[in-house]
Amino acid sequence: MTESNSTVRNVSDTARWVAYFRARETERPDALFRDPYAERLAGEHGFHIANTLPDGNKHEWAWVARTYLFDHFLAREIQQGSTLVVNLAAGLDARPYRMQVPANLQWVEVDLPEIIAYKEEILANEKPNCRLERISLDLSDGPSRRKLFEDLNQRASKIVVASEGLLIYFSAEEVASLARDLAGSSHFQNWVVDLASPGQLKLMQRSTGKQLSEAGAAFKFGPAEGANFFKPHGWEPSDVQGMLKTAAQFKRAPVELLSLLPEPKGLPGNYPWTGVCLLRKA
């Protein structure tokens, strides 16, 4: 695909897509969060993706619920004593700038060089609310990833990890490897992840998935075990919140989806479920 006629050119473009929805939510008088940087970070291309990708503008409720839940879990962990946040595949997230966090909190963002460079350019004149560092790294590079985790593990005694929008692009084997690498670092105590059920994964693959696959951003991970997938790899599910339930709570869910509530108990299987999970070190 050439740049002139492509919508999603690579996996980094999905970060621009997500920023668009944060910008949309910020405009609402009843916004669940306010991200004054999202519109600039999304840029024209982020708006283009959302409005031209098949179903690209259909699931705004899910992106908003995901952002809200990650905010909620991270704020709680910081309040409970985490002094270092490690944001894997940070994308165009602006939490260090928009969240009220202690000035001495350490926040490390990790992502591909292209997205880091773009983000630093857009936010060059902005000041974060804490001690922010950005690291360029391909997280699929196991040896480099483990070396980074070893270094970060020495910086704080209680570390919370966030990987918003990352795992779905990994295979189950790659997710298991990442989970074991994180579990092997003694001070990595908590990990916030988002998950899709096998049923939801299939729906996503049939809608926006084809074009994303062509851009090297294929949807892959939707474990049948749900959050229990992480148990053999060093992590215990502590709190699991469904995105549709959260969206309905704040009147963001489309009327046609309300029939899917209440969410099923136990493993969602072929049920179209997405959620955000707080994992604790086993």
Any key phrases for this structure?
single chain, 282 residues, alpha/beta, Rossmann fold, 7-stranded mixed sheet, 10 helices, disordered N terminus
Strand and helix map with partners:
Layout: H1 13-26, H2 38-52, H3 60-79, E1 84-88, H4 95-98, E2 106-111, H5 113-122, E3 131-136, H6 142-153, E4 159-163, H7 172-183, E5 188-196, H8 198-206, H9 209-214, E6 235-242, H10 243-249, E7 274-281
Parallel strand pairs: 1-2, 1-4, 2-3, 4-5
Antiparallel strand pairs: 5-7, 6-7
Helix pairs in contact: 1-2, 1-3, 3-10, 6-7
Q: Reading side by side through the largest sheet, how are the strands ordered?
A: 3-2-1-4-5-7-6
> How would you name the oligomeric state of the polypeptide chains in this document?
single chain
The CATH class, by name, is Alpha Beta
Q: End-to-end span in angstroms?
A: 44 Å
Given the helix and strand composition, which structural class is it? alpha/beta
User: What's the architecture, going by CATH?
Assistant: 3-Layer(aba) Sandwich
β-strand number: 7
Mean pLDDT, as a whole number? 90
Indicate the overall shape: globular
Count of discrete structural domains: 1
Structural notes for this entry:
The protein is an alpha/beta fold and 282 residues long. It has one domain (66-281): 3-Layer(aba) Sandwich (Rossmann fold), CATH 3.40.50.150. It has ten helices and seven strands. The chain has helices at 13-26, 38-52, 60-79, 95-98, 113-122, 142-153, 172-183, 198-206, 209-214, 243-249; strands at 84-88, 106-111, 131-136, 159-163, 188-196, 235-242, 274-281. A seven-stranded mixed beta sheet has the order 3-2-1-4-5-7-6. Helix 7 links the parallel strand 4 and strand 5. Helix 1 packs across helix 2 and helix 6 (142-153) packs parallel to helix 7. The longest helix has 20 residues, at 60-79. It starts with 12 loop residues before the first helix and ends with a strand. The model is unreliable at 1-5 (pLDDT under 50).
